[in-house]
Amino acid sequence: MRATRAHRDNRRSHHALTEARVTKDTEGVIHLRHRVSLETGMYRGRKILDVTKKAVAVTAKAEKVSKKK
């Protein structure tokens, strides 16, 4: 079968990129839809992640790596 311009262009019509869907939560922080806000740790009005605990762990790990060098 021959791949004509019409068939090729019909296939490529679905290749368009769309902008990321973002939303603003109750604190006014913008984040991706259907995902936990990494700044506040909230999802749909509930606290899911303890962001401060994670930040402390990342800082401790960075300090440990810098001491090795």
Short description:
The chain has helices at residues 5-12, 51-68; strands at 22-24, 30-32, 42-43, 46-47. The chain has 69 residues and is an alpha+beta fold.
Characterise the protein shown here.
- This protein has about 70 residues and is of the alpha+beta class.
- About 40% of the residues lie in helices and about 15% in strands.
- It contains 2 helices and 4 strands, in the order H-E-E-E-E-H.
- The protein has a two-stranded antiparallel sheet. Strands 3-4 form a two-stranded antiparallel sheet.
- The radius of gyration is 22 Å and the shape is elongated.
- The mean pLDDT is about 90.
Q: Sheet with the most strands?
A: 2 strands, antiparallel
Overall shape: it is elongated
> Ranges with pLDDT <50 over ≥5 residues?
none
Strand content: 5-15%
User: Which whole number gives the mean pLDDT?
Assistant: 88
How many beta-strand elements?
4
Percentage of residues assigned to helices: 25-40%
First-to-last CA distance:
62 Å
Rg: 22 Å
What is the number of helices? 2
Could you spell the SSE succession in H and E letters? HEEEEH
**SSE-based structural type:** alpha+beta
Strand order of the largest sheet: 1-2
Number of domains: 1
Question: Main attributes?
Answer:
69 residues, alpha+beta, two-stranded antiparallel sheet, two-stranded antiparallel ribbon
Outline the fold blueprint:
Elements: H1 5-12, E1 22-24, E2 30-32, E3 42-43, E4 46-47, H2 51-68
Antiparallel strand pairs: 1-2, 3-4
